[in-house]
Amino acid sequence: MGLQQAGSSACPQSRILSESEQREVTRLCARTALMLLQHGAESALVENTARRVGVALGAEGVEIALMSSAVVVTTLSERHCITTVRRNEDRGINVHVLIEVQQAMLDAETGKLDRHGYRERLEVIRPLRYPRWLVALVVGLACACFARLAHADLAGCLVAFVASGSAMFVRQHLAALHFSPLINFFATAFVATSIAAQGLVWGIGSTPKVAMAASVLMLVPGFPLINAVADMVKGYMNTGITRWAVATMLSAATCTGVILATSVWDVWGWL
Predict the structure, then answer these.
(1) Which of 41, 82, 97, 255 is most open to solvent, judged by the fewest CB atoms within 10 Å of its CB?
(2) Is the pLDDT of residue 152 over 90?
(3) pLDDT (tens digit, 9 = 90+) per residue, 9-29?
(4) 195 — phi, psi (to 5°)?
(5) Residues in contact with 115: Cβ distance below 8 Å, sequence separation at least 6, in sequence order
């Protein structure tokens, strides 16, 4: 999802760059675009930010082509073009990185950072990660709250909390082992549904079906779906369709895990 784009501030007039300077500006623009794309920014934000960085650092103009697996950046200075290509690898959604990169861009526009300072700023940006236990705890509480909103009783909320929290811990562990996201979502959905199914098997509480439904809500790929729609509406059909396809495949993997757990525990009655 793209953060709200800051309004363009007055940029310094571009000057003629030497070839080495232009190459460095090109690399910085490519690195800026890549960091944003890797951590979940929408395409319009990626292109706008990289262009403003290039102009702020002295280029006359910056042209960017975004694809699902690569970024192509061309800078222009005194009719001289330099183009670079960077391969894109998804590194997970992290809004902290998006904010830090945009703040660095704004500092470059206001003259607080030159090329050297901007490069150093990018090098120190690291994704903010919360402890695994804290993420699992908060996700469990969130799913329990969803169950409560669906009128689950206290026992049902407790089942949803345990199921979703345990499943989130499994999801984090599989991600740390670099499993495919499809396998990750499948296994996480299976664990969450299997634990929540015990409420129906053993008759825990009066709303075990609500707990089963709420325990897998953490697997809804909302961020990729929102970005996909935003990209397609703004004309970035390539990245938009790709993100939509990825979100659809993750949803299919989740459904497969739920169906398998339902079959294993024979709790089809909850549907």
Answers:
(1) 255
(2) yes
(3) 444 444 678 899 999 999 999
(4) -70, -45
(5) 21, 24, 25, 28, 57, 58
Q: Which residues pair with 75 in a beta bridge?
A: 62, 82
Any long-range contacts for 157-160 (C-beta under 8 Å, 24+ apart)?
157/211, 158/205, 159/195, 159/196, 159/198, 159/199, 159/204, 159/205, 159/208, 159/211, 159/215, 160/196, 160/210, 160/211, 160/214, 160/215
Asked if 53 and 108 touch (Cβ cutoff 8 Å), the reply is yes
Over pLDDT 70: what percentage of the chain?
93
Q: What are phi and psi of 243, to 5 degrees?
A: -65, -35
Give the residue among 86, 78, 73, 45 at the shortest CA–CA distance from 59. 78
Query: What is the per-residue pLDDT across 26-66, written as a single tens digit (0 to 9) for each?
Result: 999 999 999 999 999 999 999 999 999 999 999 999 999 99
Q: Output phi, psi for 4, to 5 deg.
A: -60, 125
The residue type found at 105 is M
Strand order in 80-87's β-sheet?
61-66, 70-77, 80-87
Are 230 and 44 spatial neighbours (Cβ–Cβ below 8 Å)? yes
Band of pLDDT at residue 4, cut at 50, 70 and 90 = very low
**Helix (H, G, I), strand (E, B), or coil: what is residue 229?**
helix
Of 118, 120, 148, 264, which is closest to residue 215 (Cα–Cα)?
148
